[in-house]
Amino acid sequence: MTVYDLHCHSTASDGTLTPAALVTRAIRRGVDCLAITDHDDVSGLPEAHQASADTSLRIINGVELSSLWERRTIHIVGLFFDTGSSVLQEALATVRAARRQRAEAIGHALARAGIGGALEGARRFVTNEALISRSHFARFLVDRGYVSSKQKAFNHYLGQGKPAHVPPPWPAISESIAVLHAAGGMAVLAHPGRYPLTGTAMRRLLEEFRGNGGDALEVFSPSHTPQQSERFIEYARFYGFKASLGSDFHDPGESHIDLGALPPLPAGLTPVWSAFLPI
Ligand code: AMP
Ligand code: MN
Ligand code: MN
Ligand code: MN
Predict the structure, then answer these.
(1) pLDDT value for 8
(2) 149 in ligand 1 pocket by Cβ < 6 Å?
(3) What CATH number should be reported for the domain holding residue 130?
(4) Ligand 1: does its nearest atom lie under 6 Å from the Cβ of 135?
(5) What is the structure's pLDDT at 160?
(6) In testing the pocket of ligand 1, which one of 134, 147, 176, 254 has its CB within 8 Å of the most ligand atoms?
(7) d(CA 236, CA 38)
(8) Ligand 1 and 39: CB distance under 6 A
(9) Domain identity same for 118 and 233
(10) Residue 278 has pLDDT above 80, yes or no
């Protein structure tokens, strides 16, 4: 059986393994098909393609686009696009510039909360000069002993409603979907169970995602309980979405599950890769 993992992060965003190290780990873990989906950046993909040449592993172009819906952050995983698309490259550059501005604002907010030098501190964890994320602030806060875990850094400082939360400057989901389609790719709603939405709001999101041409739901994710996975399998059937799955792996110590540690997609759902890969 072919093992797919279509969501993980490298040092091109907030993962701690290089693209080449992810390739090695994925092969060791028995993965056949891996999408590297860095936040708002595709610069890790050439290294991954190069490292996987002449191996059993197939690398799929991926990205995780920070997006907004009803003022909430929604992540859209893009797959199978052409990295040479200028529409895509320009959209990513715009978001990364917005990330730099947000990082400055987070640094100021942490200073007001009594934590100085946070921007400089977070920058020491940055592995791609073009991409700074809250993960880098979280690692700084853990490293300095302000909190005992990355999760607590979000719970106490960086998360919604906390002292260093800065309104996210992302494009609307409609724009992210359009950019991915312009680049020849598919748009997947990432870890839908992670968004704190009522049932009504979730159905509104799913309808709007579909209305804007969204292609698939990520039904298996470490963010989901088994009940949530069941629910999104049902929603995929009901709304006619294709299905995807991913470990969202970031780091061997931080991540809940390892590369490829996902159940196979249930029968009756169309895999997001159906038009691109042999099943
Ligand atoms: P950003 O895209 O810069 O807002 O950062 C979001 C990233 O922070 C996510 O992709 C996760 O890697 C990480 N993250 C967000 N919320 C949490 C949380 N509650 N616990 C641990 N990591 C989180
Ligand atoms: Mn991340
Ligand atoms: Mn995400
Ligand atoms: Mn992710």
Answers:
(1) 98
(2) no
(3) 1.10.150.650
(4) yes
(5) 92
(6) 134
(7) 24
(8) yes
(9) no
(10) no
Expressed as residue numbers, the domain containing 200 is 4-92+172-245
Same domain, 33 and 56: yes
Please tell me the pTM assigned to this model.
0.97
What is the rounded CA–CA span in Å between residue 25 and residue 19?
10
Choose one of 158, 180, 207: the last residue of a domain: 158
- What is the per-residue pLDDT across 100-111, written as a single tens digit (0 to 9) for each? 999 999 999 999
Q: Residue 279: pLDDT band by 50, 70, 90 thresholds?
A: very low
- Atom nearest to 135 CA in ligand 1: 8
Task: Report the SS3 class of residue 222.
Answer: coil
Q: State the distance from the centre of ligand 3 to the C-alpha of 190, rounded, in angstroms.
A: 6
Quick one: 78 and 104 in the same domain? no
- Residue closest via CA to ligand 1's atom 2 equals 133
Answer yes or no: do 83 and 178 share one domain: yes
- The CA-atom distances, in angstroms, between 205 and each of 67, 196, 220, 230, 240 are 12, 12, 18, 18, 14
Span 56-84, mean pLDDT? Answer: 97
Tell whether the model's pLDDT for residue 267 goes beyond 70: yes
Query: CA-based angle 7:277:180, to the nearest 5?
Result: 55
Mean pLDDT of the chain: 97
Asked whether the predicted pLDDT for residue 53 surpasses 70, the reply is yes
* Closest ligand to residue 135's CA: 1
**Which ligand approaches the C-alpha of residue 133 most closely?**
1
CA atoms within 13 A on the CB side of 30: 7
